[in-house]
Amino acid sequence: MPLRTTLTAGAVVVALSLTLAGCNRDAPEGTVGAAKKTLGVTLPNLTNPYYVAMKKSFEDNAAAQGMNVKISIADNDDAKQLSQVQNFIEQKVDAVAVNCVSSGPCVSIISQLNQAKIPAFAINILPDTDGMKQQNVTLVQGVQTDQREGGKLIGQQLLKDIGENGSATVGIVGEPTSIAANARDDGFKEAVASNKNIKFVALVNGKVEETTSLKVTTEMLQGRPEINVVYSDTEPAALGSLAAIQQLGVSDKVKLYAFVDKEGVKAVQDNSVMKAGAIQEPVKLAQLLVENAKKSLNGEQVPAMINNPPLLVTKENAASVIGSAY
Question: Is Signal one of the keywords UniProt gives this record (predicted)?
Fold first, then answer.
């Protein structure tokens, strides 16, 4: 009987070991036998499809990497975002990723994470660089879209569309107070600088609002009828500019190039007015951050900054691009 008891216990141990091995067979590398790390994430809102896609990507990629993720939505409120990060600190999460509501106030948020010795990551909208230097605040990593490169991609497509010796008279519908929008504009201008037949004659502020952009584009085209290319550096500006061009009845003369999201991609696909655009990749940005957060928490070195280029959108690839970006 003692022998039978010993064999039975041994069989149980073997069976249990096999069962546990089977349970861990599909676990991501580095998670077997270790407690899951938790990543806290705070996003500005869920009214923008961009952040809806980013939220889902954080959830999907955290699961794929064997991490827990806690996501809070700040409702475009700097104070609320600060409170959310303070909650993450109290919960003793392993790392925090912040998509800043505003770059300036975000410096204090990152500072609190530094003081709590919790690794701080930033995504998409990063804390103000000068403010971080002044307060001696640091990030493990920032992940953002290369805005300037996006402008260059659009400018290069314009050059391709008009031909080597083509000409264009350009009006910009932008947001002069936005660092990201200005970087996009600079990239666009840089890309077309080699063609001396391209002239910039107007810059109006669409304030990243569709109705405002409709108004200022209409006024710009009426005041400068020689404009035959409008460049808009945000999707709301692009949609407002598109409406202005159509309502003025100049679709045959004036073409539009722009940064776009989902609705803008549809206009590029139609291609009657909007000829090309650039789209950011919220899904990929979140994926990159989760992957690098895991590496960092496992003791690996990660780059201090990742600048992910947006995707060029043309009539030919519009249908496939939206699926990969969002």
Answer: yes
Give the type of residue at 255.
K
Q: How far apart (Å, rounded) are the C-alpha atoms in residues 212 and 234?
A: 12
Round to whole Å and give the CA distance between 219 and 202: 11
CA nearest to 123, candidates 50, 178, 49: 50
Distance CA 284, CA 325 (A): 7
Residue type, 20: L
CA separation, residue 261 to residues 113, 146, 323, 326 (Å): 32, 16, 11, 9
Helix axes 262-270, 235-247, angle to 10 degrees: 40
Q: What is the DSSP letter of 28?
A: P
Q: Which residues touch 295 (CB under 8 Å, ≥6 apart)?
A: 302
Prediction pTM value:
0.81
Domains of the chain: 38-139 (3.40.50.2300), 147-280+316-322 (3.40.50.2300)
Q: What is the pLDDT along the chain (326 residues), one digit of tens a residue?
A: 333 333 344 443 334 343 434 444 344 444 445 689 999 999 999 988 899 999 999 999 999 999 999 999 999 999 999 999 999 999 999 999 999 999 999 999 999 999 999 999 999 999 999 999 999 999 999 999 999 999 999 999 999 999 988 999 999 999 998 888 999 999 999 999 999 999 999 999 999 899 999 999 999 999 999 999 999 999 999 999 999 999 999 999 999 999 999 899 999 999 999 999 999 999 999 999 999 999 999 999 999 999 999 999 999 999 999 888 88
- Token pair 């405002």 is found at 212
Coil/strand/helix, residue 223: helix
Token representation of residue 3:
């022998």
Which residue in this structure is represented by tokens 């923008």?
48
Which structure tokens are listed for 104?
Answer: 């300036």
Nearest to 73 by CA among 54, 95, 94, 93: 54
CA distance 125 to 81: 13
Q: Look up residue 167 and give its amino acid.
A: S
